[in-house]
Amino acid sequence: MAEEKKLTARSEDFAEWYNEVVLRSELADYSPVKGSMVIRPWGYGIWENMQRALDAMLKETGHENAYFPLLIPMSFIEREKDHVKGFAPELAVVTQAGGKELEEPYAIRPTSETIIYAMYAKWVQSYRDLPILMNQWANVMRWEMRTRLFLRTAEFLWQEGHTAHASAEEAEAEALMILGVYRKFMEEWIALPPMTGRKSDTEKFAGAVSTHTLEALMQDNKALQAGTSHFLGQNFAKQFDLKFQTEDGREEYAWNTSWGVSTRLVGALVMCHGDDAGIVVPPKLAPIQVVVVPILGGAEEAAVRAKAETVAKRLRASGVRVKVDGRENVTAGAKYYEWERKGVPFRVEIGPKDIAKEQLALVRRVTPEGEKRKAFVPEAQALDQLPSKLDAFQVELLHAARERRDANTVRGVKSIDELAEALDGGAGFVLTGWSGDPSVEAEVKERTKATLRAIVDEEFRSPTAPAKCVSGKAASIAEVAWARAY
To answer: How far apart are CA 137 and CA 158, in angstroms?
Structure first.
């Protein structure tokens, strides 16, 4: 049942810890299909809770769900030159079906801009048909050579939103609005505080005019691109003849956006909150928020089981997701180890002595420094307080992650040598000035293995704007965040 071997410590080998904890927490497993994974029920339960929360937020902003085909004609992919150039190395292509060669190959969906805008072109005639605000939940395939569970796999799950608008201003506002929705979702549900900004032209989405990004910092101080929102301009509209008649009778191409987050966020959750005992799941996303473990054996076993069920019933009535672990073939200690490894926020232990004293033993998965993890609380009080304790746990995880991000963000770096020194010293985000020259990006990457993660939004800029580019060769036009990244 539960493995007794300890996980590799994060400080010893963070990458190995990550792989072990994903497997042994039963989030996912390797599949027989090279580069793809099987998402197990515990991992899929977390993804389902993410999906429900974000789906509701998108619908509140007027977006509707739809579904488009998995297979995309290669001629569609090839119409947008930057798009095909960006995705060509990752395409999986179907050339045979029904026992014969296809007249035209199909790409297995790497992203859906092309097929969606081809359909929009059929549906749009007038400005009255705009805006179109659609989202789809789907799987995509990008033929990755170096894969890692959740973070980078050949097939993964995501949502992709695609919109069409009558003006550039409306489309740009949409892209920024979605960036805000994503940030709120990440902070309030995953307890993941991203740094936001705009990608450089080198790093932006293939075919976009501009890409807005959410960059999260993991415990090993590497950055993870947690989500993106793209202003596509009229690039795809022109390729797919997505036109509309304006209010004054002119014909114009529509303006588009696309945006998405994926199951990569499950990996982000693991690397942001996990510890050497396993993963830590924020209460809002935990498939089980409280596990009740009756201490079995002896003459009072029936009474202990009955009390456990009563406690669970009371908690469910309060809206808490709860499970009673009454397995007879597993020791209480093994159950504790298993549920800690899976990151359940609270454990309730109930034995004969607890019944006699009308108390419950509450064990919190992680606690602020100086607090005890286990507390004996009068039963009525424990049941009344658990919902608010779950809320507090959620908030504390966000605060801890934000403090860690800020503590590992270095500012005022003025040269590439200083940038390399900061990164080698364990910095996460390093903010510098930048001239806008792509050759500086290439030089920094070659010398430090870091990439330009974002031209940072105003909220994250330094009090005094950098005057010179980190290269030392030109004036700065923007403050940017560099980091080594997944």
So the answer is: 6
Instruction: Encode pLDDT of 292-337 as tens digits.
Output: 999 998 889 999 999 999 999 999 999 999 999 999 999 999 999 9
pLDDT in tens, 157-197: 999 999 999 999 999 999 999 999 999 999 999 999 999 99
**338, containing H or E segment:** helix 332-342
State the fold for domain 14-273. BirA Bifunctional Protein; domain 2 (3.30.930)
Closest CA to 276 of 20, 46, 61, 42: 20
409-483 has the same fold as 14-273: no
Q: Which residue type is seen at 242? A: L
Helix (H, G, I), strand (E, B) or coil at 138: strand
Compute the average pLDDT of residues 272-286.
98
Domain positions in the chain: 14-273, 290-389, 409-483
> Taking the alpha carbons of 327, 283, 61, 125 in that order, is the dihedral positive or negative?
negative
* SS3 state at 107: strand
Q: In whole numbers, what is the pLDDT of the chain averaged over residues?
A: 96
The CATH T-level fold of domain 409-483 is Translation Initiation Factor IF3 (3.30.110)
DSSP 66-123: ----SEEEHHHHTTSHHHHHHHGGG--EEEEETTEEEEEEEEE-S--HHHHHHHHHHH
Task: Enter the CATH code of domain 290-389.
Answer: 3.40.50.800
pLDDT per position as a tens digit, 439-448: 999 999 999 9
* DSSP code, position 189: I
251 Cβ contact list (under 8 Å, min separation 6): 243, 244, 245
